Amino acid sequence: MPGCLFCNIVAGKTPAEIVHDSEHVLAFKDIRPAAPVHALVIPKVHIPGIHEATPEHAAALGQVLLAARDVAEKLGLAKGGYRLVVNQGADAGQSVFHLHCHVLGGRPMAWPPG
Ligand code: AMP
Ligand code: ZN
């Protein structure tokens, strides 16, 4: 989608610290980490958010979750645990409208989230 930051990262037009790259999924370090380990896992196809996902996106969504698991393993979070977050819309504070799953870890996570 023209003008989409994460589509531009997929296209290699905007630099990112890539931690996973497979046919349908890309993952990279968050530019403003909210935890000692913070990566974003995205489908390469442009989906604005989880609320815009349709049954045709089921495979891509599954691949995002499985990639998040692999990224957590690769970044050393398997033993201590980690949190996966998908923000949707204004109340959740979504700021980039290309679906992404945050992988957060390296410290204990509070509950309920802020
Ligand atoms: P959200 O608020 O859930 O939409 O998350 C968007 C995330 O994208 C935030 O955590 C930002 O720090 C992160 N972000 C914004 N621009 C970039 C970028 N160029 N590279 C990596 N992460 C980014
Ligand atoms: Zn996009």
Overall radius of gyration: 13 Å
Question: Looking at the structure, what is the overall shape?
Answer: globular
Helix content: 10-25%
Distance between the termini: 31 Å
Bound molecules: adenosine monophosphate, zinc ion
The ordered string of helix (H) and strand (E) elements is HEEEHEHE
Number of strand elements: 5
CATH structural class: Alpha Beta
CATH architecture level-2 label: 2-Layer Sandwich
| Biggest sheet descriptor | 5 strands, antiparallel
Count of DSSP H/I helices? 3
Q: Give the name of the CATH superfamily.
A: HIT-like
What can you tell me about this protein's structure?
The protein has three helices and five strands; from the N terminus they run αβββαβαβ. By secondary structure, the protein is α+β, with helices and mostly antiparallel strands. It has one domain (5-105): HIT-like (HIT family, subunit A), CATH 3.30.428.10. A five-stranded antiparallel β-sheet has the order 1-2-3-5-4, covered by helices on one side. The longest helix has 17 residues, at 58-74. It is globular, with a radius of gyration of 13 Å. The model has no long low-confidence stretch (mean pLDDT 98). The structure holds adenosine monophosphate (AMP) and zinc ion. Zinc ion binds next to α1.
